[in-house]
Write a structure and sequence with these properties.
The complex is a heterodimer of chains A (253) and B (328). Chain A is 77% helix and 0% strand. Chain A is mainly alpha-helical. The two termini of chain A are 26 Å apart. The longest helix of chain B is centred in the middle third of the chain and has 18 residues. The mean pLDDT of chain B is 85. The chains are: A mainly alpha (253), B alpha/beta (328).
Chain lengths: 253, 328
């Protein structure tokens, strides 16, 4: 079972890797897409509160987080449900969601590879962080990547029930922007609102790793929320897939 | 787990769908927004057949007859509403990996189903890893497919740069590279020219011989059915109308004749008391029982038809007549 799943992930990862090796403009536009909103937040907060907190560092790590957690399943998977090509995936000898998980890994791999030559020198230029902060950033960004994938995946699976899952995806994107720490970094939010924000999946999948890296967030508390959301969204994703495929079957595939 | 049975068995197989329905008008639109109505539609009903290992069977019928639904039930994309189906002892809708490694579902409209940026070799390797094919088996299969399909010439080409015929060859290769024992071919020659379609049939024939593969084929091209299938299942309106040897359909063909006539004025089948009547560029063709030929030819001559001749009907016309008889 584990070998089979690993084989499916390797096969799909290779496939997507080769596919996107031919799509440099597409990948470039995705990198820009993931970068532009954190940059916007940076310029706004740098002008409004130049002396408060470590704005440079927070948004620098937010850009890394945004790229490392990029997920587009709400487009790609929902389209396969709508046009019926999901049927092909159902006939693959393995658990079909692993195909999309591998797609996601391959995409992030490409986005990180393309953005690293710009972001690493930028980090050296900004400075002000220690090796320990980088190490603490890694588990938080890994969980964030899982949460953002699961959130996008759950939204994508709503395409089994609604003909317009894109509108829900748009809502989730807006919530990511407003509540995920892009438009409103937690360092500028007063309690009790900051306590609410930090517990939401949007913040757990974007702002949290950046706040841990810049030293303003608590790793222990953050990881607890991340773990909870991973379990909750993982269970939701499992159920939505199971019930959704049954519905796909009911309407004729 | 598979039960001890090879081949394909369908027993009282039935599939229904709930399709949304809405009346016209503003009020109906509002009502539909708040509360959707559904109607139950029967796609296939009470299908019974069994196909032995190594048999090549044609599944034919008009558009909307239930052929693709049947294929989806047999491959496991859909599960039956009632009845059951087994393929090589497996229940397809459970989609067990060992079963999925044994089947290939090739659709003529989308033979490759791969991203256009990939090369043919990328897709072959994708299936190699996905289906757990050992490297030595892959190399052997690749050499064989190359000798059949000229694979090496297109191996490093991207899918988007392939012609339709090349795409079909590549699609076939990527599905055969893991040596499936059961092939489900849904309109495999759609869009292919006569030469490529004939070549496709030749490759299929060889594959079936060498691998003792079981094949179910749907096609609107009777040449596919005639050259590949020893047996046909005729399905119409979701029901099985005929299950037997292709020669049985040929006997049905000999029981009727086609009268061909040049028309000098417009004429309908109703005027001649016939249901099977086609006109193309003032040449009419009609299916007639042998005993009815004198009456129809006399009537045609009365209407001023010229160049009247009697022919054996092609299989397509026999089938069209068969489907027409089943209409209410």
């Amino acid at each position: 079972m584990i070998r089979r799943t690993a084989a499916v992930i390797v096969a799909r990862f290779r496939r997507r890797y080769y596919e996107w090796s031919d799509s440099r403009w597409f990948l470039g536009s995705l990198v820009a897409n993931e970068t532009v909103l954190p940059l916007l937040g940076f310029f706004v907060w740098q002008s409004l509160r130049p002396s408060e907190g470590d704005v440079d560092l927070y948004f620098y790590f937010l850009i890394w987080t945004s790229i490392a957690t990029a997920s587009y399943e709400h487009h790609s998977v929902s389209n396969r449900i709508y046009d019926g090509s999901l049927a092909q995936d159902l006939l693959v000898p393995g658990y079909p969601p692993t195909l999309y998980f591998a797609d996601n890994l391959a995409l992030r791999g490409w986005l990180l590879a393309l953005s690293a030559p710009f972001l690493i020198p930028l980090g050296i230029l900004i400075g002000g962080f220690t090796f320990k902060q980088l190490i603490l950033f890694l588990p938080a960004v890994t969980f964030a990547a899982v949460i953002r994938f699961l959130l996008g995946w759950c939204v994508a699976l709503l395409a089994f029930w609604t003909g317009r899952a894109a509108s829900i995806a748009g809502l989730v994107n807006a919530l990511n922007f407003t509540l995920g720490g892009v438009a409103l970094p937690l360092m500028f939010v007063e309690s009790p609102w900051s306590d609410v924000l930090v517990a939401l999946p949007f913040y757990c999948s974007l702002g949290l790793p950046a706040s841990i890296a810049d030293g303003s967030g608590s790793l222990a508390q953050g990881l607890q929320f991340q773990l909870l959301w991973t379990i909750a969204l993982g269970a939701a994703a499992f159920l939505l897939w199971k019930i959704g495929v049954r519905r796909f079957d009911a309407v004729g595939g | 787990m598979p039960v001890e049975s090879s081949g394909i068995t369908a027993d009282r197989l039935c599939r229904e769908f709930d399709v949304p329905v809405r009346g016209s008008g503003v009020g109906e639109g509002l009502r539909f927004l708040l509360n959707r109505s559904y109607r139950r539609v029967t796609a296939v009903t009470d299908l019974n057949f069994s196909i032995s290992r190594g048999e090549v069977v044609g599944l034919i019928g008009p558009n909307g007859a239930g052929k693709t639904t049947t294929m989806k039930l047999l491959t496991g994309v859909l599960s039956p509403s009632a009845g059951y189906v087994t393929v090589d002892g497996y229940t397809p809708s459970r989609r067990e990996p060992n079963h999925l490694k044994n089947i290939a579902f090739i659709r003529g409209g989308q033979p490759l189903g791969s991203p256009p940026e990939l090369t043919v070799l990328d897709v072959l390797h994708y299936n190699r890893i996905l289906y757990g094919v050992a490297r030595s088996d892959f190399d052997r299969a690749y050499d064989q497919l190359d000798s059949w399909l000229g694979l090496r010439r297109i191996a490093d080409r991207q899918v988007r740069a392939l012609s339709l015929g090349e795409r079909m060859r590549a699609g076939l290769a990527t599905q055969l590279v893991y040596s499936p024992k059961y092939l489900f071919l849904d309109e495999p020659t759609t869009g292919l020219d006569l030469v490529v379609a004939a070549s496709f049939r030749e490759h299929m024939r060889r594959y079936v011989q060498e691998h003792d593969a079981t094949v179910i084929l749907t096609s609107h091209h009777m040449a596919d059915v005639q050259q590949l299938c020893s047996r046909v299942l005729v399905i119409d309106d979701g029901e099985l109308r005929y299950d037997g040897a292709l020669s049985g359909l040929n006997q049905l063909r000999s029981a009727v004749k086609v009268i061909r006539a040049e028309l000098s004025e417009p004429l309908t089948g109703r005027a001649l008391g016939l249901r099977s009547f086609w006109v193309e560029q003032s040449v009419a063709r009609m299916l007639v029982e042998p005993t009815d030929i004198p009456r129809v030819t006399d009537l045609l001559l009365d209407y001023g038809a010229t160049d009247v001749s009697i022919e054996d009907p092609p299989l397509e016309i026999v089938l069209a007549d068969l489907f027409r008889k089943s209409e209410p």
